[in-house]
Amino acid sequence: MNKRIKVACLSMLIGGMAINPAQSVWAQAAKKPAAKTSAAAANFDLKYEKYKLPNGLEVVLHQDKSDPKVAVAIMYHVGSSREKQGRTGFAHFFEHMLFQNSENVGKGNFIKGVNQIGGTFNGGTFTDGTVYYEVVPKDALERILWMESDRMGFFINTVSEWGLENEKQVVKNEKRQRVDNQPYGHTNYVILKNLYPASHPYNWEVIGSLEDLQNATLADVKEFYEQWYGASNATLVLTGDFETPEAKQLISKYFGELKNKPEVKKLTPQPAKLTSTKSLFHVDNFANLPELTMVYPTVEQYHKDSYALSMLGSLLSEGKNSPFERIIVEEKKLAPGASADQSSAEIAGTFRVRVRAFDKKDLDDVQAAVFAAFDKFEKDGVNQQELDRLKIKEETALYNGISSLLNKAFQLAQYNEFAGDPGFAKKDIAMTQAVTAQDIMNVYRKYIKGKPYVMTSFVPKGQEELAVKGAVKAEVVEEKVVAGAEGANTGTEPTTFAKTPSKIDRSKMPELSNNFAFKAPAIWTSQLKNGMKVYGIEQNELPLVQFSIQLKGGMQLDAPNKIGTASLVDAMLLEGTKNKTPQQLEEAIGQLGAFINVSSSSENITISGNTLARNFPQVMKLVEEILLEPRWDEAEFTKAKQAALNQIKQMQANPSAVASLAFNKVLYGENSRFAYPTAGTMQTVEGITLQDLKDYYQKNFSPSVASFQVAGSVKQADVAKALASLEQKWTAKNVALPAPVTATAKPAARLYFIDQPEAKQSVIYAGYLAVPVGSPDYAALQAINHKLGAGSASTLFNVLRLQKGYTYGAGSGFSRRPTAPGMFAASSSVRTNVTKESLQTFDEILKTYGTSYTEQDLATTKGALVKETALSYETLGSLVNLLETINTYNLPLDYLKQNEVAIQNLSYTQAKSLINNYIDPSKMVYVVVGDAKTQLAGLKDLGLGEPVVLQNK
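^ Insulinase family protein, sequence as received from the core. Prediction below:
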């Protein structure tokens, strides 16, 4: 399908991690569409009812009673494309503002209110629109409609200079975190400035510039709200378990009286036009590898050619037989991979080629290889077999794209707002089906072959010679790092404001309807004769099956000097079998419309898959072949090893990854098997041979340490049939698993620092090894952390982000491991010039948490956690994860219910005792990754001892 909306960011963070709608239906859209789908996909129809309120608000209802919850999405037809020069980033900034206050809900109560009922929420801004969404228990339907309508119609009077200045710091922190402090973070900025003229609505990034954000005024906010945030410029979608007459009555009650604002004129297509190629380079402070990007101007969304361009991207870059794989990866050995992708927005589109090369590779050679791959594609033409494979996989992707209520809400809202029809999916699919091989060749010649483009060479410091010859230095605005905090918000927060009249009493928060009930999924179990355990959940909403085979061991079975072996084993398992080349295996999987993946962790190797239910038996035959007959191809091993080294090199450039890895090493100790990344280090991976992989496989792959998890539209008896051959052929052997780690050495110091020169933010981790293996307190630990750091209503988030404006997000949590102590960890990325102040704030919050924790905090947590659990098990992926957790930690099948009981029975006295035992400020160890030149000296008088400077290696 041709859904090409790019979500630039999401303003609310939960536990320090952004919830990203692009991970759901938009992520499925990012998978290039197939040229043809099956009859089932062609007949796809997401049932809905659409109507319009007198004020112009368009409403779409989709009833789904499979789960006791509802999802609400409101999409406004306003994004960065509607901004003014000098006020870039304002649509996204305004998205932030709408979470802060409204006349009747009250300051901070939107965030708090959703958290207290166990719901999730967020917002996202992209070039052409803004979306707000919530998923809540169904008994909160009226409450969430009251809250959303208050933002739509009763917000603007609450906005003040104080609130404006406070939120500016948050948005600027987001830009620093997402763009300025990231490898290759300025790529889009350079491309947009050179692809579109200054007058074009796509000339700037959605997040805007720091200068423009700082210059935003209260008058700007009011003007923007009045112009764009009217009911007639939005679509409201409600999906889930509701009664239609009641839902209509409530929507009319809360949204019907909102005033109708002037109709927004639609933008007409404005494709970019280049008269010549532009080549630019940038020396990237955070990049360790050179990267080439080539962007060609194309067409807007839903244009006929956009479908063929999407197929072109897939055929060029996806799969073992693709020209990019053959030329760039295999023949020239310049990079571990390359991508090509069509991205269509409302008024223009682009076709982007990206290659992140191996260390020290010249980007002139990369550019030449891209053109050689283009030539190969044109010479060979469209590979019909590859085209067929992509066609078949579309149906699976289609169903996965609507696997949750929220995904369905996004799809209906987007199609309604941008195609004028919530059911446009059928037409979208039909357009995809209609693409022919000739169409693909036509768009290649029309938009790509010999056409001008914008090219960027992003190279590491000191490696300018790697940029494409003749490239011009790009103009990039980079914030200077200066010592000392930015000026504090000296304004006064107002306590009163004018009230907007309403026909109904909006002053009281609607009560919950108390019609909520959660029934945990029914789990069945069995065990094969070879010892493999089997866990299953039958769920028949969609014709899909998701599964995993989890083998205990993972990285902890690597030789100490060859960490990364398990990770390379997982990379090799999909590189062919005894009777299938890598290309043939890929083709066999694709012809079934399946997705198969292999991954490794510190304690497991997991083979996972997702398939149409009707193809499950055939997919399991392929999994059996992958598992029992690996190919161990020497050439593929060389490629996998090079890719692994490239991945490690990239991680060394990412401040967040550097901080996380250093934190692990400090807590577990230099010699612990858990002190290193699963992928290994440059030194350990260099020494790994193909024989090491074979030895690992022979010693450690056995059904005696394996479990099979499955969820979806398949019965237990059919699972048994599908596993019968594997049961017979896979014989058990003794696998020597390491004994659990029960004790670790205490870190030598309390404060560690890693220099990241010119970092725009400092990454902070604080914590210690707090959770013993098999701790019976784990459920209760989630409860005592909830108020501290589990979400946007938590203390850490509230103080560090909302009150002080130091960060974009902050959070904390407990983790557990099956064979080693788990940790308590709090973390955040803060602007560089408040590093010291942020550490002081962390320390203060942790020291006072035990004394400030109230009985009401515990009561609120109990109510929220029960409903959070109920809302967590909707997709097949979440159900398979549940089964994996049960197996990994040897938990009872009803452990969700047991957790609920444990949390509900937790007394205030017990909670206080757990806080004192598990969140002990005196045991906290801090790791900071930031700019040593401006920040290190100031950390010496924090009372945490002399900082120990670590090397990034």
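The two ends are 43 Å apart (CA to CA).
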